Amino acid sequence: MNSLIPKIKLIVRKLTGAAQLEERMNVRLTEIQENITDLSQKIEILVGKAEHEDLVNEVKGLEKKIDVAFSQLSSVQRGLMAESRTSPLPKEEIVDNNPTPTPPLDRLAAETVYASIEDKLRGSSEEIRNRQSGYIKLLENVPSGKSVVDLGCGRGEFLELLSESGIDSLGVDSSAVAVAECQEKGFEAKKMDLLDYLSSCEDESLRAVVSFQVLEHLSFPSLIQVLAESFRALMPGGIFLGETPNGANLAVGGSTFWLDHTHVRPLHPELLKHLAEFYGFTDVRVDLVSQPEVPWKLEPDEDKGNSSYAEAIIGLQEYVLSGQDALLVAYRPN
Q1: For residues 183 and 167, what is the distance between their CA atoms, to the nearest angstrom?
Q2: Residue 45 in contact with residue 59, Cβ under 8 Å?
Q3: pLDDT digits (tens, 9 = 90+) for 212-260
Q4: Number of structural domains the chain divides into
């Protein structure tokens, strides 16, 4: 752990004109290092005395705090890695009296904070892979010969699934952090606005356009432009997959949707279906996925029947217990 801190500081020092950034990051990294050192010392003391259940529980609590500290440090590292890729390193022997100004700290801070939010709220990479693995079957039934583009590829979970299935793919993301992480994993990824990328594609040049947890970040004009450009760029028989929080689920639209400060508005499944059909897609459907599991769900009693109260509750709970995400599946006609 201690060996990681100097490496991060070295990256910061190499950034052109990044004195202010280095100072602030050093303070943050020092705080994290001090917290980890303090927690590690406490664990060493407690482990020697962990003969009682209360002490064991306290050890577990401290371990969780260390995990949080590691996550924070990882987010800082990802932000610095992306910034170092986009900022050219000056040659030590050359003194530039008019250095190119470095990007403001706000951009790096935003990249790092958003990476932290994604790690915390969306789930681990393994969880995302498990959720998206079923989507591969939809692509296997689409004519091959062209590439699949993942708009808003994020940490590259779906790119990894595509690679394992032998499907040519490309990731596109506006986040330098996300693109750097995908490239580190060996995937082809571009830092580019998704509409700029789609507009640059030739007609009928893509096997599939996929976009997971991205559409809700777009303004309405951008959303319909994505559908129109995707239709144009897809080969006949090509597929569009768009996963977004289910705007018809009250728990999502009224609560969890707003945990992400970059969300614009929830999208109702019926609206997604209508828009896809309007722009020419066929065999359009919206699957409700990520079903919530709760212990208090009331099931219909087919043998004895339900009281009027039970029927009301069963009807209302569907607005809360329907799939938390909506998957738009749409095809370009052959």
Answers
A1: 17
A2: no
A3: 999 999 999 999 999 999 999 999 999 999 999 999 999 888 888 888 8
A4: 2
CATH number at residue 184: 3.40.50.150
Give the three-class secondary structure for 246: strand
Q: Which residues contact 98 (CB under 8 A, 6 or more apart)?
A: none
**Cα 302 from Cα 285, distance rounded (Å):** 30
Q: Which of 118-127, 182-191, 312-321 reaches the highest mean pLDDT?
A: 182-191
* Residue 138 and residue 99 in one domain: no
CA–CA gap between residue 93 and residue 95 (Å, rounded): 7
For residues 166 and 315, state if they share a domain: yes
Indicate whether 153 and 108 sit together in one domain.
no
- Over 50: is that where the pLDDT of 92 sits? no
How far separated are the first and last CA of the chain, in Å rounded?
Answer: 55
The parent domain of residue 51 ranges over 4-121
pTM (two decimals) = 0.66
